[in-house]
Amino acid sequence: MTKKIVCFGEMLWDCFPDFETAGGAPMNVALHLKQLGLDVQMISRLGKDEHGSKLLDFVKSYGLKQDLIQEDLEHPTGMVLVDKTNKENIKYDIVAPSAWDFIDLTEENLQAVAEADALVFGSLAVRNEFSWKTLYHLVQQPVLTVFDINLREPFIDFDKIESLLGYADILKINEDELAFLADYFEVKNVNGCKSQVDSVKIFCDFMVAKYPIEIICITLGSNGAMLYCQGEITKHDGYKIQVEDTIGSGDAFLSGFVKMYLEGKKPREILDFSCTLGAYVATQQGGTPKYKLEEFIKPVE
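^ thats the sequence. predicted structure below, dont judge the formating
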């Protein structure tokens, strides 16, 4: 039976000086999961404007269901203004307020989450109290919860993050976010280890003791990823590729992870597939290239 996934959060346009591209981590994950053959719904909110209409057309081209994407008559579709003046320090202005800050809690999205095999969400979408209250109700449904922390200054609220960690079954972070969280929680000895694996294990041991998290996945960019499960660390070194751009490769990785985890695969298989998909997307332009499963299931080296 096809697994059902609900993704919650931002849908937006990344606006560069000379072009715009559809984005938002939860939407990227949803589109990859759809291409991987899963039954996916997206809970978000768009403005009743040209950008909103174009985003609906964009996700429709992937076959993504739109029944839980709400329309906002007051607030505009989300936008991120990208300043590339200094290529060594690219700046992002995540425009607020945006329609995805005001996602309504409805019977339809409550039912969709309750009937799903997994709920995927991040931390950026709860910068506004309105969407925060909606997500807080959704994570309390009887469903596997996958928390993809997405730390973006100045929208980092540790009270909300800690609340979400209390409902997370699976936590996905990158190495920078691990360092950020280790510092915030004052996890001892993380920086004093001789190996990266040892420091990651100390952090993960701390987190699973503090929260009901069962699995932690740490992405390491071009160096692959690690998976912490039942006190053990599994590491994958990733694949060496010719990078086109890294936009959305982490979202692709998470999509591969969710698919393989729900299929009951072992940690090594989960990481290999996820790293393969993340690497494939990094060889393509944009965060959600269209593909068929057989296009990236082959070695990407």
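The mean pLDDT is 92.
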